[in-house]
Structures are given as C-alpha cells and as structure tokens.
Specification:
The protein is an alpha+beta fold. Helices cover 48% and strands 25% of the residues. The strands form 7 sheets. A 4-stranded antiparallel β-sheet has the order 2-3-1-4, with helices on one face.
Length: 622
C-alpha cells in the first residue's frame, strides 16, 4: 500500500481552499438601500449619506454601517420590510436627482473578502424578488418593419430609375402606384430581383395600376421570431448592464417573455429597469436651424433641445438616417483633445444608409438625437386616507447630444463627441451595446415573491439537506464502520467543494439546486459503497486486508467512472435544453458528480492509507 506524496498535498490544498471559500455562505447578505445619482456623472459624497441617515432616523428606520462603493452610498437596514420603507421614504425626500434602489450588502468578514471569497448567490425562490410576464406587440413589430421596407422600396425604385407616383404603407402591406403598366412591370422586375420577402400582386385602381406587397408567411414568422429574440437579448443585456444580478429571462410561447428578478421586491422599480430603453437617431440638421427663433416649425423638420432639456432648441430634418437598431458595437474613449467620445460601429445595412446620406451632405451638419423612455414620479396625498400615494407617469425624453459638420463621407465606423462626462459616455455606449427593443412589450402578469416565503424555502431546503446527510452518514457507519466514517469525512468535504465551485462560477442556488445537492449526497457515497463491497469480496476470496484494499479501489474504479459519466452526460443535456429550475438542478448535480469523483476515490483512499498503511493489520473494520 503506497500512495504518492503529491496526492496528499493535493488533498490538503483542496480541503483548505474549499473550507475557506465555503465559509462566506455562512454569512448571508443583509438588506440595504443604495443611493446613486440620476445621471451617470453625478457624485455622491458624505453629505448625501448623512442626509439620508437623518431622513431615515426621522422616519424611525434604524440603519447601520453606511458605506460608499462605485460612486454610490449603501445604507444597511435590519429587515426586508425596513428596506422597502427606507426606499420609499428616501425616494420621496431626496427627489428625482437621486436613484434609490434595493440592494443586498455582504456580511462576509473582511479577511475573507480580501482573498476573494464571497457567499453563494440565491435564486428567486430563495431570496425573493419579482416575476413578470411580458407580451411582445407583434403588430407593432410588423409595422416597424414595413416602415423600413417602404423607405427601402422607394430608394430602390429611384436608384433603378423606375417612375412611380407614390409608395404608401398600410396596416399589413405596402402599395406602390404608377402612371402606366410599363412602369409597374419594370418595378416588379426590380423588386423581385432585390428581395424575395414579398408576395407581389398587380392590381388596378381608379388612379391607375398599383402593386400590393405583402410579406410571405415564412418572412412573417422570421419577423416575429426576430422580435422575440431581439427583445430577449436586449432585456438580458439591459438587466445585466444595469446591475440586476442572476436575472432569468426566457421566452414562453410564440410572443411572450418571462422575467424573474431575484432580490427585487418593488415591482414599480423593476418595471422601470425593464422599461428603460435608450436609442439614437442620426439626422441631418435643417438649413433653417440657425435662423429658427421658436414658434411653429417648418415643414419636414422637428425641434429638439440641445445637450440639456433647458438648452437651446435645434431644428432637425424629420427623416432619420439610421437608428440605434443598426449599432453593432459602441465603446467609450477619449479623442485627441482628451475629451470623452463614443466610437460606434454600424452593421452593413446601416453603413450603407450612412454613406448614402452623407455622400451629398459633406460640409453640412449632422446631429445625434438621444431618445430615452422615462417615468416621472410624483407624490399625492389621498384626502380620504391621509396616505401619500406614488404616481408614475411615462414620458419620452429626446435631446440632441451632438452636432457636428460632416467632413467626409461616413461609413460603418465613426465617432460622436461632446457627450458630457466620461461616465455619461460610458453609459451611452453601455445602453447602445445592449441594443434596442425590436417591438414594444406590455406587462401581462406580475407577482412579488416575498422574503418570508424565501426564508421558509431556505429553512426547508437546509433541513432536507441536513436530514439527508445525517441519514446517509448513519447508514455508512452502521454498515461499513471505519470505512463508512471515512466516507462521511469525504462527503463533508464534497459539500464544501460544491459550495466553493458554485460561488466561484457565480451560479445561483435555487430550490431545484438544493434538490440536486441532496441527490448528490446519496450518489457521492454510492462510489464508496461499491468500493467497500469490492473489498469485502476480496477478503472472502482469501486476499489479505491490504491486498483487498488495493484491489477494491483498483477494480471498482472503472464501474464508478462509467456510472458517474453517464449521469454527468444527463446533467449536461438537462442544462443545455432545460429552462431556469431545470438548469439550477443540472448545475448542482454536475458539480456534485465531479466533486464526488475526487472525494470518493482520491480523498478516501488517502485517509485509508493514513489509517492502515503504516501498520500491520489482520482485520478490517468493514
């Protein structure tokens, strides 16, 4: 019986690391409120923190350990109920210049945080949060696509010198009218050569021949699927970029999206996060902009404030060159004067549109219009009850953030400057990278999962894990004695390794995940059962105790490996094709299987070597 020294070193290393990085899970996060500026460049200082503490003290809400981090103030409170009350009071008293959000503050000791140890994250069913069901407006998606197609058809016919009277967009089709049938036939040839997306029907009207274009069924399905997928991607990106961790965003049916936001109990605030959309429009500045002094705007133009809502008004042409939907990438940086800028990359179609629009506009000015959907919050006292009611009114804020002279024909890559502070440039790039919604969405259902339910689930989950561990440990000790005790030590180490790996990869623990851990407990000792039974067989066949130990581990290894490999493959399949709860189960199951292969074979073999390897034995306690 020999065991390499490097394996002992490996076991000791894994044991120490697993213990250290599993410890933070014993220190759960506590509720807190976070105060940050409404704009990216706003600064939060000690004065704001002191004012917030005084406001909460006046409202009889106890706080402790106020701190700063990432240009935000964090105030810890005792309970989730105090957290919701504190958010409501601070939001009302601080006003719209600050954003008051729910957060969770770590309680992990500083020495553990210093080595990067952090507690395992909890899912929606354990931490609490909000659940939304949103429906994508497919008719609006079709309308937006037809609007773009109408402009493309008009441009294609002009490029191919085909005469037409008008191109108009109806509810679900596009109508092109002509003066004669020759022009109509030429248009059919051009349109069929350009795209196969439409079914083209030639009709006659009182005003002359017309063409009616409708999307084919295959194209309609693609548009609907794209709208759902694009909204899914945009929601995931927006939620991740805006700091809502461990959110679940997935499709349901053909036109609905499910969103779960753990750790958020305020549905109104969650709606604001989901509904926050920012987009850009690139437009040419009207030639009449310098002489416009207010009042009615000239035909074909629109007036917008410049840089700030109270800034000077600037006239822009109504026609858009490209929008933020065409943005493939956006990165913030600095120009040659060390001023913040945003470098933008358009897709192929967007680059062509930009080149066509600027080819004949060199020397003219182009503006960047920033459009954001917001909510205006007001507080009204109900005369009947005397309670203060919060009212949220949605509105669209459109501001020109950049106005520059076109010095050359632009393409897919260019930059915009004059975007304010570096933080504002970074936020603009962040929102553009996340993308725009392909179609509007409406809230069909919303539910709040309370923290009391989450705590109840946590208690039951922990109890089930404890009961499972104790029963398995007793079984192993009763049936396999010393070898069963060794298996229990390895099982404890296996649990620590699972917690460590899940905290490292940032996986969220949910109720199905707890079920996966309980199942892993039973499967982890299964390998040791095989080993122990094999050792018993070797002894019955006349082998010495040490020979039986060596043969038991060597000959049981193949069976253990094959059985765990098949289960691991099933876990990967569940993760690949499953949804939220199934994925949570698959993650813990896969991690548990991999860890159990190490603990059940390597760790127990090392302990057995320490117990029996250096002395003469005539009998095994098995």
């Amino acid at each position: 019986m020999r065991y390499p020294a490097w394996k002992y070193v490996l076991i000791l290393f894994v044991l120490v690391i697993s213990t250290l990085y599993a410890l933070p899970s014993l220190y759960p996060d506590e509720p807190a409120v976070q105060i940050s500026g409404a704009k990216a460049g706003s600064q939060i200082d000690q004065t704001v923190l002191n004012r917030a503490e005084q406001i909460l003290k006046s409202a009889s809400i106890a706080t402790h350990d106020g701190s700063f981090g990432q240009n935000a103030a964090l105030l810890r409170v005792r309970t989730s109920e105090d957290q919701l009350k504190a958010q409501e009071v601070l939001r009302r008293e601080l006003g719209e210049n600050y954003v008051v959000a729910l957060n969770l503050a770590p309680t992990t000791p500083a020495w553990l945080q210093a080595i990067g140890a952090k507690p395992m994250k909890l899912g929606l069913d354990l931490r609490g949060g909000v659940h939304f069901l949103l429906e994508v407006d497919m008719s609006k998606a079709l309308e937006q696509r037809l609007e773009t197609a109408t402009a493309d058809i008009r441009r294609n016919l002009r490029d191919n010198k085909v005469n037409f009277n008008a191109v108009s967009q109806n509810k679900d089709n596009i109508v092109v009218s002509f003066a004669n049938t020759t022009d109509r036939d030429n248009a059919v040839s051009v349109l069929r050569r350009q795209s196969n997306d439409f079914s083209i029907q030639s009709l006659a009207s009182t005003d002359g021949p017309i063409l009616q274009l409708k999307y084919t069924e295959a194209r309609l399905q693609e548009i609907n699927q794209y709208a759902v997928n694009q909204n899914l991607t945009t929601l995931r990106n927006r939620i991740n970029e805006l700091g809502v961790a461990e959110a679940l965003v997935q499709s349901q049916g053909s036109n609905r999206i499910v969103v779960d936001l753990p750790g958020v109990q305020d549905t109104a605030e969650a709606k604001r996060v989901l509904g926050r959309t920012a987009n850009l429009e690139f437009r040419l500045v009207s030639e009449q902009a310098d002489t416009y002094a207010g009042g009615p705007v000239p035909a074909g133009t629109q007036a917008f404030p410049f840089e700030k809502l109270d800034g000077p008004t600037i006239l822009l042409k109504r026609q858009r060159i490209v929008t933020g939907e065409r943005v493939q990438n956006a990165m913030s940086g600095y120009d040659e004067n060390n001023q913040p800028e945003v470098n933008i990359t358009l897709d192929t179609a967007g680059g062509k549109l930009m080149a066509d629009a600027t080819r004949n506009a060199v020397g003219k000015q182009m503006a960047v219009l920033f459009i954001e959907n917001k909510q205006r919050i007001s507080y009204v006292t109900d005369p009947a009850t005397g309670k203060t009611v919060e009212t949220r009114t949605p509105y669209i804020e459109s501001v020109v953030i950049n106005r520059a002279t076109i010095q050359a024909v632009l393409g897919s890559s260019f930059r915009i400057t004059g975007v304010g502070t570096p933080q504002e440039a970074s936020e603009l790039a962040l929102l553009l990278r996340a993308g725009a919604l392909a179609a509007p969405m409406y809230f069909v259902e919303e539910r709040t999962v309370g923290p009391s339910l989450g705590q109840d689930n946590i208690d039951k989950g922990i109890l089930s894990t404890q009961v499972g561990f104790v029963l398995v440990a007793l079984f192993m000790i009763v049936f396999y004695r010393v070898f069963g005790l060794i298996a229990n030590v390895a099982l404890f180490m296996n649990l620590a390794m699972i917690l460590t790996v899940m905290s490292w990869i940032g996986a969220a623990l949910s109720l199905p995940g707890i079920a996966g851990i309980v199942l892993t407990i039973g499967m982890a000792v299964d390998a040791n059962v095989l080993i122990c039974e094999r050792i018993r067989e070797e002894i019955r066949w006349g082998a010495s105790p040490k020979q039986a130990i060596v043969a038991g581990y060597d000959r049981a290894y193949t069976t253990i490996f094959d059985s765990n490999l098949t289960t691991l493959l099933v876990a990967f399949i569940l993760f690949a094709i499953g949804t939220g709860p199934i994925k949570g189960f698959a993650v813990t199951l896969a991690i548990g299987i991999i860890c159990s292969m190490f603990t059940a074979i390597t760790v127990t073999r090392g302990i057995v070597q320490l117990v029996y390897g250096k002395r003469r034995i005539d009998h095994l306690s098995i």
